[in-house]
C-alpha cells in the first residue's frame, strides 16, 4: 500500500486545471493564487512519482495517466461531497448550501416567480444558481459541480433521479401582420421551415421544437442562430421570421411591448417536461423531492 495518499485539495486543483486548461483560470475558480495551485499539483506529482501534466509556455496537456487520475479524482471528490451531504441531510431539510444548475430557457422565466418565496419560507437555504445549457448542466451534475439540475425533458441525462415539475406547452410566435391569418392552433405542416428561427446548438429547446413538429426536413432548413429566447423574439419582431416559444416564457411576459403573436402548436407531443434531476442514490434525495414540491407550488 502506498505510504502517500493525495489530499482532497490536491485532487480539486488537478480537476480544476483539467476543466479550465489554464493555470490562471483554474486558480481563480479554486479561489487560490496560481502559484498555490501549481505547487499543489507539482507536490502531487512528486509524491506519486509520475507526471500528470505536461507544461509549456502556452499549452497545458494532460498525460494519458493524468487523464485517468482526473477521472478517478472526480469520483473521489463526488463521494467526499456525498459524505458531507449525508450529514447535512440528517439536519433540517432545505438548509445550508445547495448548488443548482438551471437551463437558460427556464431560469429567467421560472426563478423570479419562486425565489422570493423560497427566501422567505426557507431562510436557512443558501441556493447557489448557475445558468448552463443542458449538456453542460448534466456534466456539472455528474462531476459534482452541481447538486441538482432544473432542465427540460426529454434529454439524455445519464443515471439520475427525476421529479417532473410541470408540462410546458410549445407555441409558434410570428409577426402580428403575418398575411396567412394563422388558425387558433397552428399545425406543424403550416410552419414555413425556411423562416423558422431556433436556438443554436446546445439548447435542448431546439430539439424539443423539432421533435414536436415531426418534420425531418426542418433540421436542414431552420436557421439555428439565436443565443436566447429574447433574441429570437426581437428577430421575429423585426420581421426576420418566426420561432417557437414555451408557454412559460409567454406567461412571464416575453412578448410584452412587441408586435409578436403566439399561438399553440397543434399536435399530441407539443410540450416539454420541466424536471428537477439529481444523481442516483444521492443522500439528499428526500431533500430534492421536497425542493421539487416547492418548485411545483411556484
Strand and helix layout:
Layout: H1 8-20, H2 23-30, H3 34-48, E1 53-55, E2 60-62, H4 64-89, E3 96-102, H5 107-121, E4 125-131, H6 134-142, E5 148-153, E6 160-175, E7 196-199, H7 204-213, H8 217-221, E8 223-226, H9 229-237, E9 242-246, H10 247-251, E10 260-264, E11 271-279, H11 285-297
Parallel strand pairs: 3-4, 3-5, 7-8, 7-9
Antiparallel strand pairs: 1-2, 5-11, 6-9, 6-10, 6-11
In total, how many domains does the architecture comprise? Answer: 3
What is Rg? 23 Å
Q: Return residue spans where pLDDT drops below 50 for at least 5 consecutive residues.
A: none
Shape: globular
**Which structural category do the helix and sheet elements fall into?**
alpha/beta
Helical residue percent band: 40-55%
Question: Can you write the helix and strand succession as a string?
Answer: HHHEEHEHEHEEEHHEHEHEEH
Count the helices. How many?
11
Strand content: 15-25%
GO molecular function: DNA binding; DNA-binding transcription factor activity
Protein name: LysR family transcriptional regulator
InterPro entries: LysR_HTH_N, LysR_subst-bd, WH-like_DNA-bd_sf, WH_DNA-bd_sf
Pfam family, one: LysR_substrate
Amino acid at each position: 500500500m502506498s505510504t502517500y495518499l493525495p489530499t482532497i485539495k490536491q485532487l480539486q486543483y488537478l480537476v480544476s486545471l483539467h476543466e479550465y486548461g489554464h493555470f490562471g483560470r483554474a486558480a481563480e475558480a479554486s479561489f487560490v493564487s496560481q502559484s498555490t495551485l501549481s505547487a499543489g499539483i507539482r507536490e502531487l506529482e512528486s509524491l506519486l512519482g509520475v507526471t500528470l501534466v505536461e507544461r509549456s509556455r502556452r499549452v497545458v496537456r494532460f498525460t494519458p495517466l493524468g487523464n485517468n487520475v482526473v477521472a478517478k479524482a472526480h469520483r473521489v471528490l463526488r463521494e467526499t461531497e456525498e459524505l458531507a451531504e449525508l450529514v447535512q441531510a440528517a439536519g433540517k431539510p432545505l438548509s445550508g448550501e445547495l448548488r443548482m444548475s438551471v437551463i437558460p430557457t427556464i431560469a429567467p422565466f421560472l426563478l423570479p416567480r419562486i425565489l422570493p418565496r423560497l427566501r422567505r419560507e426557507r431562510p436557512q437555504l443558501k441556493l447557489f444558481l448557475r445558468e448552463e445549457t443542458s449538456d453542460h448542466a448534466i456534466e456539472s451534475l455528474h462531476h459534482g459541480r452541481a447538486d441538482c439540475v432544473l432542465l427540460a425533458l426529454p434529454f439524455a441525462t445519464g443515471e439520475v433521479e427525476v421529479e417532473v415539475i410541470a408540462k410546458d406547452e410549445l407555441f409558434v410566435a410570428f409577426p402580428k401582420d403575418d398575411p396567412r391569418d394563422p388558425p387558433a392552433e397552428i399545425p406543424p405542416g403550416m410552419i414555413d421551415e425556411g423562416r423558422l428561427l431556433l436556438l443554436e446548438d446546445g439548447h435542448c429547446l431546439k430539439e424539443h421544437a423539432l421533435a414536436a413538429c415531426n418534420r425531418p426536413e426542418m433540421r436542414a432548413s431552420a436557421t439555428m442562430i439565436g443565443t436566447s429566447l429574447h433574441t429570437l423574439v426581437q428577430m421575429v419582431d423585426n420581421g426576420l421570421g418566426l420561432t417557437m416559444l414555451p408557454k412559460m416564457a409567454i406567461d412571464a411576459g416575453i412578448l410584452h411591448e412587441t408586435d409578436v403573436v403566439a399561438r399553440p402548436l397543434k399536435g399530441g407531443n407539443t410540450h416539454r417536461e420541466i424536471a428537477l434531476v439529481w444523481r442516483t442514490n444521492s443522500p439528499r434525495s428526500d431533500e430534492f423531492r421536497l425542493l421539487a414540491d416547492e418548485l411545483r407550488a411556484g
